[in-house]
Amino acid sequence: MSKKITDENGNTYVQKKPFYKRIWFWILVVIVVAIGGSALGGNKNNGGKQVSSNSSNKEASSKMYKLGDTVKVGDATYTLKSVEKTDERNEMADKQPANVIKVVYHVKNDGKEDLPVGTDLNVYGPDNNKLDTYALENTMDSVAAGKEMDVTAAYGTDKLGKFELQFAPLISIKQAAKYSVEVN
To answer: How many angstroms separate the CA atoms of 108 and 144, rounded?
Structure first.
């Protein structure tokens, strides 16, 4: 409903409702909130879809994956091959951590475009802090569509123990696949 207003000169103006009092505005707000809520709510599983594993009894949606498990995240399939402490050091590195762990994993690109690798892994230490990469023989490359490759990454840490590795392609909205590995 618009309201007609006449000024002292006899000009007639139509005063409209503010936009926030209109029904279309509130319908739009409800739609935006519903879409935002569904995007943020998401699936609360561990991420990825387990393709195969070395052990026979797996519950892919509610537990951490183990060394040797193969998991699909989006268009990428990851297999964690090894996680071990190394004595290799980079004398030119700014930081010299007490320990360096070397991670080797296999990536298969099931997508239609090149997949960047080397940025698809985050590692968290025994104290749940994210580890920084350590400059050794880290692979920073890409895998062509339909191709596969082994990737090596090194991380510096002051403590050894249980590490959490999270795999997800660089530009993926899929939840990361989480692996749990003990390194002593």
So the answer is: 9
